[in-house]
Amino acid sequence: MNILSYGLLALVSRKEASGYDLMLKIQPFWQAKHSQIYPLLGSMEEKGLLSAIWIQQADKPDKKLYSITPEGTLKLHEWLLEETAAPVMRDEFNLKCFCIHLAEPSEVRRMFADRRAYHVDRIKYYKDIQDNIPKEHRNPGHIGFEDYILLQKAVLRTKASVDWIDWVEQEYGQWTVEA
Fold first, then answer.
1. Buried (b) or exposed (e) across 116-153, using 16+ Cβ within 10 A?
2. pLDDT tens per residue, range 76-97
3. Is the whole model's pTM more than 0.85, yes or no?
4. With b meaning 16 or more CB within 10 Å and e meaning fewer, what string describes 31-50?
């Protein structure tokens, strides 16, 4: 079992889903492609962690709906209690920041302005979703509480990125003159 397997189990523990639905739902947490997801679903089904039924559709291809089994729930619970690995961060923007000394000041300012605009849009996106979470889902113990707290983490992380960009722009401005 890898982390993606546990992520798929977690999603299916909340609601049965097709492989395609799972691919869409896992994206905010973990970047994965069809070629990774479908073999894992098949393997977990073979191991008895998931069960599946075929749903016939009149105007679309038939789809397979996965649901978690008691064995899958146990496996997911065991993983939940394991020590969590340190976070991994892969961000192309950070690598580009490492070489801004090669760019003209106007290019650097544009790069940071573009990234700031991206983060401001993401904050609005997260807040819009968060605002639509019903009040009762905001209580610990409710299955929707996880959505609420993870959205708050996304909002705070993204605001921190905006604050950092503002700080960099101030520092950078002290040392450069508009070209």
1. beebeebbeebeeebeeeeeeeeeeeeeeeebbeebee
2. 999 999 999 898 878 899 999 9
3. no
4. ebeeebbeebbeebbeeebb
Question: Which among 11, 15, 179, 24 has a CA at the least distance from the CA of 103?
Answer: 179
Contact between 46 and 71 under an 8 Å Cβ cutoff? The reply is: no
User: Phi first, then psi: what are they for 17, rounded to 5°?
Assistant: -155, 160
- Starting at the earlier edge strand, list the strands of the sheet with 63-68: 17-18, 63-68, 50-55
> Which tokens hold the place of 141?
């113990």
Long-range contacts of 54-57 (CB under 8 A, 24+ apart): none
The C-alpha atoms of residue 80 and residue 77 are separated, in whole angstroms, by 5
Q: Residue for token digits 């799972």?
A: 22
